[in-house]
Design brief:
The chain is of the alpha/beta class. The chain folds into 2 domains: 2-22 and 107-232, HAD superfamily/HAD-like (Rossmann fold, 3-Layer(aba) Sandwich); 31-104. 39% of the residues lie in helices and 12% in strands. It is built from 8 helices and 6 strands, in the order βαααααβαβαβαββ. The protein has helices at residues 31-37, 45-63, 75-81, 90-104, 110-122, 136-145, 167-177, 191-200; strands spanning 9-12, 124-129, 151-156, 184-188, 204-208, 224-226. Strands 3-2-1-4-5-6 form a 6-stranded parallel beta sheet, sandwiched between helices. Helix 1 (31-37) crosses helix 2 and helix 3 (75-81) crosses helix 4 (90-104). The longest helix is centred in the N-terminal third of the chain and has 19 residues, at 45-63.
Length: 233
């Protein structure tokens, strides 16, 4: 697409941009089944389901609070403070952390793998993405589909405790590429965190609006709106 040809660098979000079926934290989700599959035997199903669900609600709520944009605690910190998990041994807390990560990570489809390879032929690529869990399970999915090496830099918020729309994550990526900000465009699905964060950081933006949401005057305005990442090639 001619729009992205104006840029040298494409910075991408991950969840709901090219990774889907993640963030499975519904109250109907069977977290206990994941716990059992990972070898857990100590805790009851009811307790596992309650801990993971309530921790996910707490992190989501805190993530909406600007006071946490540059100091969001780790998943393990939330587990350690949970009244029904704080007494657990370290190995059980680590297991619950793995359960959480397994429900946060999604899947990268073949069509999006192909799109990323095409974009990498014409642009320098980087990742700037909000995740709650440690990055390992996300990188494992990157490796499964063979895309990790397409990106010069991969910045996940959980490495720093910063979350978009804070400009700190964007600035870190910009420093790496060492090009003028007008030569970088950010691509993501969240109008406030992705488009708004990019705008505050002085970057152009592409909004992936898969569901056809309507913009209003209170929202940041993207430079381009597409339904899917593949619309950019």
């Amino acid at each position: 697409m001619s729009f992205i040809n104006k840029f040298d660098v494409l910075l991408l979000d991950v969840g709901h941009s090219f990774m889907f079926k993640g963030y499975r934290f519904f109250d109907t989700e069977d977290f206990a089944a994941t716990y059992r599959n990972l070898g857990g035997i100590l805790l009851t199903d009811e307790l596992v389901n309650q801990i993971i669900f309530t921790v996910s609600r707490k992190i989501k709520a805190d993530g909406k609070n600007p006071a946490y944009y540059e100091c969001l605690p780790s998943v393990i910190s939330y587990l350690q403070k949970h009244p029904q998990a704080s007494y657990l041994p370290v190995n059980e807390l680590n297991l619950l952390e793995q359960v959480f990560a397994n429900h946060e990570v999604g899947v990268i489809s073949g069509k999006h793998v192909e799109v990323l390879h095409q974009l990498a032929k014409t642009h320098r690529l980087g990742i700037v993405s909000n995740i709650w869990s440690k990055k390992d399970i996300f990188l494992k999915e990157f490796d499964r589909v063979g895309i990790r090496d397409l990106f010069e830099i991969i910045i996940f918020s959980s490495d720093f405790g910063w979350i978009k729309p804070s400009t700190k994550l964007f600035d870190r990526a910009i420093e790496h590429f060492d090009v003028e900000r007008e030569k970088i465009v950010y691509i993501g699905d969240h109008i406030m965190r992705d488009v708004g964060g990019a705008k505050t950081a002085g970057l152009s933006s592409v909004w992936i609006n898969k569901r056809g949401k309507q913009l209003n005057q209170s929202m940041a305005i993207p430079d381009l709106i597409v339904k899917d990442l593949q619309d950019l090639v």
